[in-house]
């Protein structure tokens, strides 16, 4: 099997149920999710499995769920069945709560950084926010998009924030606090 098909040489790409321009909002949304998935793969390689097995398992599950999100966004068939479920959001919420309880309480805003893995997770957080914005734009254009994808991405960015803080905490590296402001969390 060849990796190239030449079917996109004129600026079009295939969706499930049709073809669109490669700069279509739908393609931009799932393409940003694909970019996010790559950063998650990078984060996994930066985590020591003896310390972060729970996070690695989370991230591997998230990679599959993001693939589901991309597939759901690429589906423009008249009769659609979506893959991502609300239960994935509930699992994320439980993990966010667990991770938030483990890290020290926040007093100030924090900047991305600390350890390499935490910084990569912060990149994943910001790419998640961009993916969510692309999905919202798609929804605002009255495109048929499963709302669970937008909700999942919204919660996922919170997960990455909590996970980045836990990575720093477990490695005994302080979060990088924003020093130009005072304590904002009490």
TrEMBL record:
Keywords: ATP-binding, Cobalamin biosynthesis, Nucleotide-binding, Transferase
Domain Cobalamin adenosyltransferase-like: start-end pairs: 3-167
Pathway: Cofactor biosynthesis; adenosylcobalamin biosynthesis; adenosylcobalamin from cob(II)yrinate a,c-diamide: step 2/7
MF-aspect GO terms: ATP binding; corrinoid adenosyltransferase activity
Membrane as UniProt keyword: no
Biological processes per GO annotation: cobalamin biosynthetic process
SUPFAM superfamilies in alphabetical order: Cobalamin adenosyltransferase-like (SSF89028)
Catalytic activity: 2 cob(II)yrinate a,c diamide + reduced [electron-transfer flavoprotein] + 2 ATP = 2 adenosylcob(III)yrinate a,c-diamide + 2 triphosphate + oxidized [electron-transfer flavoprotein] + 3 H(+); 2 cob(II)alamin + reduced [electron-transfer flavoprotein] + 2 ATP = 2 adenosylcob(III)alamin + 2 triphosphate + oxidized [electron-transfer flavoprotein] + 3 H(+)
EC numbers for this chain: 2.5.1.17
InterPro entries associated with the record: CblAdoTrfase-like, CblAdoTrfase-like_sf, PduO-typ
Keyword Transferase: yes
Superkingdom of origin organism: Bacteria
Subunit composition and interactions: Homotrimer.
PANTHER family per UniProt: CORRINOID ADENOSYLTRANSFERASE, CORRINOID ADENOSYLTRANSFERASE MMAB
Family affiliation: Belongs to the Cob(I)alamin adenosyltransferase family.
Descriptive protein name: Corrinoid adenosyltransferase
